[in-house]
Amino acid sequence: MKIILQEVYDMSNYREDQIADVAMGVIADNPGIRTSGLIAEVRRIMGPDGEDLEILEGRNDDKFSQKVRNLKSHDSIADRVRTVGERNRQWFLRDE
Fold first, then answer.
1. Distant-in-sequence, close-in-space partners of 72: CB < 8 Å, separation ≥ 6
2. Do 62 and 53 meet the contact criterion of CB atoms below 8 Å apart?
3. Given this model, what pLDDT does residue 6 score?
4. What CATH number does domain 16-93 carry, 1.10.10, 1.20.120, 3.40.50, 1.10.1760?
5. How far is Cα 68 from Cα 17, in angstroms, rounded to an integer?
6. Domains in the chain: boundaries
7. Cα(52)–Cα(47) distance, integer angstroms
8. Whose CB among 21, 55, 66, 90 lies 3.0–4.6 Å from 84's, allowing a Cys bridge?
9. What's the rounded Cα separation, in Å, for the pair 56 and 90?
10. Contact criterion met (CB below 8 Å) for 39 and 88
């Protein structure tokens, strides 16, 4: 009788809302952080792997970095942050 062992790995596939929560904390701690820095810091904190690290077709970035960028393009946190600039924009919390 042959026994086959299957290893199960928890691979990340973070949702945009999960990323948004972490990004809000990063922006609060680093007012004016640029998009590239925001991506790097959120990546450091969340430690994506698996599907999140797949390179997008026709692009140089992975799914995780695109999800962070989507916070702006989807206006996911527009009511809580403001951005300055178009490319590698700066991120600030909105005044309370």
1. 35, 83, 89
2. yes
3. 39
4. 1.10.10
5. 10
6. 16-93
7. 10
8. 90
9. 24
10. no
Q: Could you tell me the pTM of the whole model? A: 0.85
For 28, list phi and psi in degrees, rounded to 5: -60, -40
Can you read off the two tokens belonging to residue 77?
Answer: 């946190």
pLDDT band at 10 (very low <50, low <70, confident <90, very high): low
Tokens linked to 89:
């924009």
Interior/surface letters 5-44, b for 16+ CB within 10 angstroms, e for the rest? eeeeeeeeebeeeebbebbbebbeeeeebbbeebbebbbe
Mean pLDDT for 68-93 is 95
Q: Are 26 and 6 in contact (CB under 8 A)?
A: no
Q: Which among 81, 78, 77 is positioned nearest to 32, based on CA atoms?
A: 81
How far is 62 from 85, CA to CA, in rounded Å? 23
Look-up: residue for tokens 């959120």? 42
Give the per-residue pLDDT at 59: 86
β-sheet bridge partners, residue 31? none
Residue 43 has which token pair?
Answer: 């990546």
